[in-house]
Amino acid sequence: MITINEKERTFHLHNDRVSYLLYVMDSGQLGHLYFGKPLQPEGSYLHMVEKSHRPMTTYITEGDLYTSYEHLRQEYPCYGTSDYRYPALEVRGNDGSTLCKLEYQRYELLQGKKTLEGLPATYVEDDSEAETLEIYLRDPLRKLTVVMSYTIFRDCSAIARSVRFANEGEESLFLNRAMSLSVDFPDADYESVQLSGAWARERSVKVRTLELGLTAVSSMRGHSSHQHNPFLALKRKHTTEHSGDAYGFSLVYSGNFLAQAEVDNYQVLRVMLGINPFGFCWKLEPGSTFTTPEAVMVYSDEGLNGMSRQFHTLYRSRLARGYWRERERPVLINNWEATEFDYVEEDLIRFAQKARECGIELFVLDDGWFGSRNNDRSGLGDWKANPAKLPNGIEGLSRRIEELGMKFGLWFEPEMVNRDSDLFRAHPDYILQTPGRSVSHGRNQFVLDFSRPEVVDEIYRQLHTLLTHARISYIKWDMNRSISECYSTVWPTDQQGEIFHRHILGVYDLHERLLQAFPTLLIESCSSGGGRFDPGMLYYAPQGWLSDNSDAAERLKIQYGTSLVYPVSSMGAHVSACPNSQVGRHTPLETRGNVAMTGAFGYELDLNRLSPEEIETVKQQVAFYKQNRQLLARGDFYRLLSPFEGNFAAWETAEPDGSRALVTVTRLLSEVNGPYRRLPLRGLIPDRRYHIRSRYLSYDAYGDELMQFGLMLEDQSSGQMIDGSGDTCQDFRSLIYEVVGR
Ligand code: GLA
User: Is the pLDDT assigned to residue 727 strictly greater than 80?
Assistant: First the structure.
């Protein structure tokens, strides 16, 4: 998978889906040649380097009027030696200079992939799954070694990158900017695709045409954020969901990030991804190393859908890990939207009993069970049951839930503390705060300083005690505010630029320690809904709560957008009560179920308040999900109709061998006397006969017909039916079609 031309000093990473080519320039710096559809492995490619004389240019060597970094495509650019675009690296020495010159030293090839210590990353289970190229660069003046690491996977078009810095000198260096990835594309004729939004409307798909200058998304909130996801894609103008070039760049990180596309005045495009340089400064002491988070780049010539399927496979099977990776996820019920803080043990038992009757497998107790927590002004930090609500403690409650035949799960917000808590009273210095300044709150809470190991230890101790004594199979790990006044009172002044990153390393460390101690624990990540839904969390928590907005119509967009990068198995999705608590909307129970089933499925309402007919529907939904959850979680996912573009949302999950598929079609508003509709499917076998079944429909067709002419939708609009407006004419109506190979 990695071909090296020693004479030309080119490195070619390739498999049958992708090629990535780089080379060593005469000056010793690393140059970029190509990224995209596979090229001949053995070819000679140096002629791809484009350079010519241009006025008003700074050249590297006297007498040479051709060679300027400004006009060369590079692999890991630095600023200050003739390139005026944004650099990937900025290192400051004690002399105050930020110039850096990275010269090629050597390379190493290894089978498989190394782990990144303390950081989440993709991995292999068998060394034959991937090959890794490490290129050693060095700035002789600074005695700084930079190791560029590239891993190409055998079975997908993904390349994982990270960069390691080693200070081999005698003086400290300061990394002001250390991106995980930089790629220079030869032209800029692309649109960028980003996943952006806000609380309760996370990860909407936004497309922008690249223009001269910068296009960027970022976070400076201390978490990846509701606002922007650590992801950027490029597509050609004519790329569709299913055809054309698409490139995806995704950062395996949960803190401040920057994803940027810069178009220069010669139409060269530079894409960068990594820790947000704003506010970042890492002191690299003599003898120490620093490793960037991993960035994953994917190429597909099968449009955005093709790109997504590559991410899904890699992230589902080689980023998510551990006990729950392949296992069927339990159908859960969560009490939050039904009760908020207001409950006692007996209410919860009644709640769980009804859920058990419906076939639900896991009961999750949300916020409000600990310390003095009756509202959001107190209790965070005191992870001990409130005896007024739970006289038998979590131990007693979890035992009773297990006796009902269900598993028990519990909510925590480990990184936070309220002023009104025993933890804060004992350790007011444990929070992130800047001396002499006021501290802003979010939801009346403050952020614990996880850059301090003793703070992480204290929370670990509390959680470990509970998990040891009670029967807790699952935890919902919440994080309900962004970081402000970021400063740690225990770190020296010249290391304050490390705190955001060190905090996230502390979060990862706590996850890791809990998983080591309780390997069968299922963690669901959450951050006021989807404020930290990123690949970094996926390494520890194979599922995450997508959004506090549980309205089915809104969820169509949120799930559709999220699926650009993240697999269905990672998307926590629940059926909630109507009118919906966030948007006040009524949607049919069937629709709520159909939408949530394309996710880690559950309920978030009091089933005791439903009618007997509705309970019947819930039972059927749970049974249907259980029958199909393997396919839904692990099948190939195809987006068919975008809720961002029209009145319909449709997606399909097909067995990779094409033997079966489920198609979910939801119409937002009812139509009047509308057209006949057909929906071309994907991933079927052209000459195989399939049986199609949905609520009223049943027919047989070959795969080619279903993919060309399309699935006949039974969803008639009002006016099309003799009896006027049957239930097919409602707003927000959804159907699942089963397509089963004969
Ligand atoms: C956040 C979560 C919710 C719920 C509440 C509890 O908002 O996203 O699901 O857990 O906190 O306070």
Answer: no
Interatomic CA distance for residues 234 and 247, integer angstroms:
5
- Distance (angstroms) between ligand 1 centre and the Cα of 550 equals 12
pLDDT of residue 331: 98
528 lines ligand 1 (CB under 6 A): yes
Q: Is the Cβ atom of 480 under 6 angstroms away from ligand 1?
A: yes
Does the C-beta of 10 come closer than 6 Å to ligand 1? no
Q: Is 229 exposed, middle or buried (0-12, 13-18, 19+ CB in 10 A)?
A: buried
Given a contact cutoff of 8 angstroms between Cβ atoms, the answer to whether 120 and 542 are in contact is no
Q: Is the CB of 30 under 6 A from ligand 1?
A: no
- Best of 367, 474, 543 to mutate for ligand 1, by most ligand atoms within 8 A of CB? 367
Mean pLDDT of 82-90: 97
Once rounded to an integer, what is the mean pLDDT over residues 573-584?
Answer: 97
- For ligand 1, atom 11, name the residue with the nearest CA: 528
Containing 552, the helix (H) or strand (E) segment is: helix 552-562
Task: Determine whether the shortest distance from the Cβ of 604 to ligand 1 is under 6 A.
Answer: no
For the beta carbon of residue 672, count every other beta carbon within 10 angstroms.
Answer: 11
- Cα of 478 to ligand 1 centre, how many Å? 7
pLDDT tens digits, one per residue of 498-555:
999 999 999 999 999 999 999 999 999 999 999 999 999 999 999 999 999 999 999 9
Q: What is the pLDDT of residues 447-502, one digit of tens each?
A: 999 999 999 999 999 999 999 999 999 999 999 999 999 999 999 999 999 999 99
190 within ligand 1 shell (Cβ under 6 A)? no
**Residues in contact with 105: Cβ distance below 8 Å, sequence separation at least 6, in sequence order:** 136, 137, 138, 145
Tell me the C-alpha distance between 497 and 337, whole Å. Answer: 39
**In angstroms, what is the C-alpha Rg of the chain?**
27
Query: Tokens 């810069």, residue?
Result: 262
Active-site residues, by number, are 478, 548
Residue with tokens 């049974």, as numbered in its chain: 623
SS3 of 380-416: the string is: CCCCCECCCCCCCHHHHHHHHHHHCCCEEEEEECCCE
Atom 4 of ligand 1, residue of closest alpha carbon? 336
Which protein residue has the closest C-alpha to ligand 1 atom 2?
528
Q: Is 406 exposed, middle or buried (0-12, 13-18, 19+ CB in 10 A)?
A: buried
Backbone angles phi, psi at 32, to 5 degrees: -105, 140
* Cα 574 to middle of ligand 1, angstroms: 13
Tell me the pLDDT band of 426, cut-offs 50, 70 and 90: very high
How many Å apart are CA 413 and CA 417, to the nearest integer? Answer: 8
Tally Cβ neighbours within 10 Å of residue 530. 31
Q: Three-state secondary structure along 451-495?
A: CCHHHHHHHHHHHHHHHHHCCCCEEEECCCCCCCCCCCCCCCHHH
- State the pLDDT at residue 182: 98
Residue (of 392, 420, 427, 431) closest to 408 by Cα position: 392
The pair phi, psi for residue 384, each rounded to 5°, is -135, 140
Asked if pLDDT for residue 194 goes beyond 80, the answer is: yes
In testing the pocket of ligand 1, which one of 226, 332, 335, 411 has its CB within 8 Å of the most ligand atoms?
Answer: 411
pLDDT of 276: 98
List the structure tokens of 525. Answer: 């990540």
- From the CB of 337, is ligand 1 less than 6 Å away? no
Segment 155-169 mean pLDDT: 97
Could you tell me if the CB of 603 is within 6 A of ligand 1? no
Q: Whose CA is nearest to atom 7 of ligand 1?
A: 528
- pLDDT higher than threshold 60 for residue 357: yes
Reduced to 3 states, what is the DSSP secondary structure of residue 220?
coil
Kindly report the CA angle at 459 between 510 and 399, in degrees rounded to 5?
Answer: 95
For residue 584, the CA-to-ligand 1 centroid distance in Å is 18
